[in-house]
Design brief:
Elements (H helix, E strand, L loop, with lengths): L38 H8 L14 E2 L11 E3 L25 E3 L5 E3 L3 E6 L3 H5 L1 H11 L2 E4 L3 H4 L4 E3 L2 E4 L1 H11 L7 E6 L1 H6 L1 H7 L5 E5 L10 E4 L2 H9 L3 E3 L5 H9 L5 E4 L7 H14 L3 E6 L4 H14 L3 E5 L4 E2 L4 H6 L4 H17 L7 E4 L5 H10 L4 E6 H24 L4 H8 L3 H8 L8 H23 L13 E3 L2 H7 L9 H8 L1
Parallel strand pairs: 5-6, 5-18, 6-9, 9-10, 10-14, 14-15, 15-17, 17-18
Antiparallel strand pairs: 1-16, 2-19, 3-4, 7-8, 11-13, 12-13
Helix pairs in contact: 3-5, 3-18, 11-13, 14-18, 15-16, 15-18
Length: 521
C-alpha cells in the first residue's frame, strides 16, 4: 500500500482528473489539453508558490501521510483491581479525584493545571491574528503559551538600534495579552531562532519585558529548514529584505518588481536561515540566557535523524535545562513546504520511542533527564495519555499545536456570530457567551465583571482543555492511576506486531502473560 498522496491535496487546492497512479500521483491518463488541476499542472503556472499549503494566513495544515505506526496502534490498558495514588475505596477512587496537574522545570517549579501547552504561535499570519485568543486561553487554563520565532523581526513597527531590536510593539502586545490574565500557574515561553538571536531578541524580551522562560529552537517536526511566511506586497518584501531576511524572489531585482506589478508573481516568501548546532555554542547560549536573567531555559527540537535527537537529549542533560520539547513528523504548520511536511522526518511514535531508549541509557549512568514534552499530530485526551505512557517516566507534558488553535478559532467564530445576534437584540455579548459555552457560567462566576473582557476564542480554548481534563481523568481512573506520575508504559498495549517492535510495548496477545499463568496456576 502507499502511505502518501502525491500530486493532489486539499492543502494545495489541487486534485486529479481521474484516479492517479499510486506511485507518481499522476493521472493514469494524462491528457493533452487538460488545464492541469494537479500540483504539477498548477506548478506549470505558479511555480514555487505551489510548494506551500494555501490560503496562507487563514489555515493551519497537518500532514496527510498515513504513517505505518501511529498512536491508534496502541490501546490504553484498564484494570478492575486496586488504585495507585489513591485509597482503593470506591467512595474515594472516583474519576473526578484524579490529579491531572504536572510540573516542569529542573526544580519542578513550573506548575500546570493540565499537562499541555500550545505550539509555537509565531510570525505566520494565522498565529498573529489568533494570538490573543491563545494567550488568554492559556492563562485562564493554567497552561503554557509559546510565542514562536521571528515575531520581532516581522513587526512592521519594530524599532532597531545598531542592528538590534530596541522595541517591538507586536511583541509587547503578545506578552501583555498573556500577563493580564496570568495567575501564577502555567506561563509564557518566548522562542528564538537564528534570526532572532542576530536581532538581540533574547536580550530584549528578558531584560525589558521580564520574560522568565526562554526557548532555544533547533527546529520543528513540520520542516527541515528555517521558518517562512508569505508576503503580500512589494513594500513588505523590501522591508524584510532590508532587515537581512532571505526573501524570494529578490524584491530588489527590477525584473521581479516588474513581474509582481504585472501579476505574474503574486507574493513573496520570507525565509529564516538554517541553525547550526554546536555543543559548546549550545552551552554558552544557555549560560548567556541565564546571565541575562532567564529563570528557565528550554529547547525545542524537530524530527531530525536519531543522532540529532541524541545530541538534543545529551546536551540538555548536561546543561540541566528545564524542558525539552521533541516534535515528530506529522504534526501541524502555519506554513511549511507541503511535500516536505509529508515526506520528511521521523514520525512522532518512532521519535518518542527513540527518545525513551536514549533517556534510559542516560538514566543508567545517573544523568539528569530534563522534563520532556512530545509534539506532533496530537489532539485529544487519549493521545495525551498514550504519549505520556509511551515515554514514561520522562514525558511530563504534551504540546498541542493545531488543536489549541482549532479550539480558539472555533470559539472566536461562534463568539462573533453570537455577538452579532446579541447586538441585534440589544444585549451584551457576554450574556450570549453564557448560553453559547458550556463553561460560560463557570467563568462568569470566576471572573465577575471581567468576564465580558474575555475573548470568546479564549473561552473556547478553556472549554476544550476542560473537556480533555475530564476525558483524561476517566482514562486514568480506568487504569487505576490517580495522578500523572503513576502512568507508565505497562498502561499501554500494542495492537500490531509492528507497534510492539517499534515501542517495546507488549503485543496484545502477550500482555500480562506471566501474571495470567500465576492466576491460573
Amino acid at each position: 500500500m502507499s502511505f502518501s498522496k502525491p500530486n493532489r491535496s486539499a492543502a494545495t487546492l489541487t486534485t486529479t482528473r481521474v484516479d492517479p497512479a499510486p506511485g507518481s500521483g499522476i493521472c493514469v491518463t494524462c491528457v493533452d489539453g487538460c488545464e492541469g488541476p494537479c500540483e504539477i499542472g498548477r506548478s506549470a503556472l505558479k511555480g514555487r508558490e505551489v510548494i506551500y499549503p494555501i490560503p496562507f494566513g487563514k489555515i493551519t495544515a497537518g500532514s496527510e501521510k498515513d504513517y505505518p505506526v501511529d498512536f491508534s496502534h496502541f490501546n490504553i490498558q484498564g484494570t478492575a483491581v486496586g488504585a495507585v495514588g489513591m485509597d482503593a475505596d470506591s467512595d474515594k477512587a472516583t474519576f473526578p479525584a484524579v490529579d491531572t496537574t504536572t510540573a516542569l522545570g529542573a526544580d519542578g517549579s513550573i506548575k500546570l493545571n493540565f499537562p499541555v501547552f500550545t505550539g509555537a504561535v509565531g510570525s505566520t499570519e494565522i498565529a498573529r491574528v489568533n494570538w490573543t485568543e491563545a494567550a488568554v486561553g492559556a492563562a485562564i487554563s493554567g497552561v503554557i503559551v509559546v510565542a514562536g520565532e521571528n515575531i520581532c523581526g516581522m513587526d512592521p513597527q519594530a524599532e532597531f538600534s545598531n542592528g538590534k531590536i530596541a522595541r517591538s510593539p507586536e511583541m509587547e502586545r503578545r506578552v501583555n495579552a498573556f500577563k493580564q490574565w496570568y495567575d501564577g500557574t502555567g506561563g509564557i515561553i518566548i522562542q528564538a531562532n537564528v534570526e532572532d538571536t542576530k536581532l538581540g531578541v533574547p536580550e530584549y524580551v528578558i531584560e525589558k519585558l521580564g520574560i522568565e522562560i526562554f526557548e532555544l529552537k533547533w527546529g520543528q517536526g513540520a520542516k527541515d529548514i528555517g521558518g517562512e511566511v508569505k508576503l503580500p506586497s512589494l513594500e513588505r518584501a523590501l522591508q524584510l529584505k532590508e532587515r537581512d531576511y532571505i526573501v524570494l524572489p529578490d524584491p530588489t531585482n527590477p525584473a521581479v518588481q516588474e513581474a509582481f506589478k504585472a501579476g505574474g508573481i503574486t507574493e513573496f516568501e520570507r525565509h529564516s536561515r538554517l541553525g547550526m548546532v554546536d555543543e559548546d555554542a549550545f552551552h554558552k547560549s544557555v549560560e548567556h540566557l541565564k546571565g541575562l536573567g532567564a529563570k528557565y531555559v528550554t529547547l525545542k527540537t524537530g524530527a531530525y535523524r536519531p543522532a540529532d535527537l541524541a545530541r538534543a537529549i545529551k546536551y540538555s542533560s548536561d546543561a540541566k535545562i528545564d524542558l525539552l520539547t521533541i516534535d515528530g513528523a506529522g504534526g501541524g504548520t502555519g506554513m511549511s513546504p507541503w511535500r516536505m511536511m509529508n515526506e520528511w522526518g521521523i514520525p512522532t511514535v518512532q521519535l518518542e520511542c527513540l527518545a525513551y531508549q536514549m533517556c534510559e541509557k542516560l538514566k543508567a549512568k545517573g544523568a539528569y533527564i530534563p522534563p520532556i514534552a512530545i509534539a506532533g499530530g496530537l489532539s485529544l485526551e487519549d493521545h495525551i495519555f498514550k504519549a505520556i505512557a509511551l515515554g514514561a517516566p520522562y514525558v511530563k507534558a504534551i504540546c498541542l499545536g493545531r488543536a489549541m488553535l482549532t479550539a480558539a478559532m472555533v470559539g472566536k467564530t461562534h463568539g462573533r456570530l453570537m455577538a452579532q445576534k446579541m447586538e441585534d437584540e440589544g444585549e451584551e455579548p457576554s450574556e450570549g457567551y453564557v448560553r453559547l459555552f458550556a463553561v460560560g457560567a463557570e467563568l462568569k462566576e470566576r471572573f465577575g465583571n471581567d468576564f465580558e473582557k474575555l475573548p470568546p476564542g479564549a473561552i473556547g480554548m478553556y472549554s476544550y482543555i476542560d473537556r480533555m481534563k475530564q476525558g483524561l481523568q476517566q482514562f486514568m481512573a480506568g487504569a487505576r492511576k490517580f495522578a500523572l506520575q503513576y502512568i507508565d508504559r505497562n498502561d499501554l498495549v500494542a495492537l500490531t506486531r509492528d507497534a510492539a517492535d517499534v515501542s517495546g510495548i507488549a503485543y496484545v496477545m502477550e500482555s500480562d502473560a506471566e501474571e495470567v499463568e500465576k492466576i491460573l496456576g
